[in-house]
Every structure is written in structure tokens, then in C-alpha cells.
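User: Here's a structure from my thesis project, written as C-alpha cells. My advisor, Dr. K., wants to see whether a designed sequence matches the one we expressed. Can you design one independently, without my sequence as a hint?
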């Protein structure tokens, strides 16, 4: 247990350090472009820290990563190339190598966001049901519906925080006039709900405490940029 807490503390320290440095560097230094250009390193590091702090890593955890990455890349490729999903948008060059117009990092980001949102709601639900006790216990179907809905809404909330800052940073842009369509959030909710269904079904440890902290850290990061950038 002590070793696990040490892992969590190390990961939190690194995450806070990188995100605070990013906010300061982007908002208050003449090296804004350098900090923005190194965003891929930050995203890769956060995904690596999730793996580092994951308890009892098994094949299902790897499968879930593959499902999120693949589904995210396919959905984004359809969106970028047809506009049938999310709306009319295109990615800039800040996020690195692309396949079918979609940076590979976006697939990884889908995993990070879904895993964090799923972990938060799963842990919160367990705490609530424990407090309620056995006398007030919803059915399995009701629990599943509540989990998927709540976690998908949390994912959409994060996307709402991220979108304006990401556009200003040049990660992607909306066409033709830059307005973020409501359809984007609708698609985000539906795809997130499908991936969170997979999250709920797959048998891997869903108590990664760092995932909770990372979601909060990244939310505050994008909120700061949304307000001050």
C-alpha cells in the first residue's frame, strides 16, 4: 500500500508540475509557442502515468486501451473527412503525426478522458451505494444506466472545457467560422457512452486514484486557458 501511495504521489507531482508549467509558459512567458509545441510530450506522459499507477494491469486493461484508441481514431477520421460526426473541423499540425487527417495522439486522448471519467464515476457510485446500504439498492440495469449516463456527461463537460482553449492553441479549428457546434457535444456523448459501456463490462481494476487527480488537473488547466488565453 505504501508503495502504491508513493506511485500516486509521484504521478500527481509530475502532472501538476507539467500542467502548471504549461499554464505559466503559455500565458506569462515569451515562449508560448515552445510550450504549445511540446503538448504531445505532455499528453503521452499523462497516458504513461495512468499505466504506471494502474493496479493489477491485465490483458483487459490493454484491450480497453486498444478499443478506445481505435474507436476514437475511427470516429475522428469520419468526422474530419466527412463531417458526419462532430461537425466540420480539421486538425492543425501541433499534435504530431496524423492518419487520415487525425493525430495519433487524439486516439490516446480518447483513452485518457474515458478512463478518467469512468474511474471517477465508478468510485463515486461505489461510495454512494455503500452509504445507502442494502435497503436502498437500485437494480443492476439502473446502476449501469446511471453509470454510463453520468460518466458520459462528465466526458462532455471536459470536452466543453477543452474545446475553446484547444482551438485557441491551434490544435484544431471549426469550419467555416470557428463556432463549436452543439452536434459536437451530442456525438461526444454518444461515443463516450458506448466506450463507457465497454469500460463497465471489461474486468480490470477501476480504482486508479491518479485518474481522479489527472481529470481535475487537466480540467483546471483548460479552464485557466479558457479564461485567460
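Assistant: Designed independently from the structure alone:
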Amino acid at each position: 500500500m505504501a508503495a502504491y501511495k508513493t506511485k500516486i504521489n509521484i504521478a500527481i507531482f509530475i502532472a501538476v508540475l507539467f500542467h502548471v508549467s504549461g499554464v505559466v509558459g503559455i500565458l506569462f512567458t515569451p515562449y508560448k509557442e515552445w510550450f504549445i509545441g511540446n503538448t504531445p510530450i505532455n499528453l503521452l506522459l499523462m497516458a504513461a502515468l495512468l499505466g504506471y499507477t494502474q493496479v493489477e494491469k491485465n490483458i483487459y486493461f490493454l484491450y480497453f486501451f486498444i478499443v478506445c484508441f481505435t474507436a476514437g481514431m475511427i470516429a475522428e477520421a469520419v468526422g474530419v473527412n466527412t463531417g458526419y460526426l462532430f461537425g466540420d473541423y480539421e486538425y492543425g499540425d501541433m499534435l504530431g503525426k496524423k492518419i487520415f487527417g487525425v493525430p495519433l495522439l487524439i486516439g490516446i486522448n480518447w483513452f485518457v478522458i474515458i478512463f478518467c471519467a469512468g474511474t471517477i464515476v465508478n468510485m463515486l457510485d461505489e461510495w454512494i451505494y455503500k452509504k445507502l446500504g442494502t435497503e436502498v439498492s437500485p437494480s443492476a440495469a439502473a446502476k449501469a444506466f446511471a453509470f454510463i449516463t453520468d460518466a458520459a456527461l462528465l466526458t462532455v463537460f471536459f470536452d466543453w472545457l477543452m474545446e475553446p482553449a484547444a482551438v485557441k492553441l491551434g490544435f484544431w479549428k471549426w469550419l467555416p467560422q470557428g463556432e463549436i457546434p452543439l452536434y459536437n457535444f451530442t456525438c461526444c456523448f454518444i461515443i463516450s457512452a458506448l466506450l463507457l459501456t465497454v469500460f463497465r463490462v471489461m474486468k480490470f481494476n477501476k480504482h486508479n486514484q491518479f485518474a481522479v487527480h489527472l481529470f481535475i488537473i487537466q480540467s483546471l488547466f483548460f479552464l485557466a486557458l479558457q479564461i485567460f488565453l
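When you compare it with your expressed construct, this may help: The radius of gyration is 18 Å.
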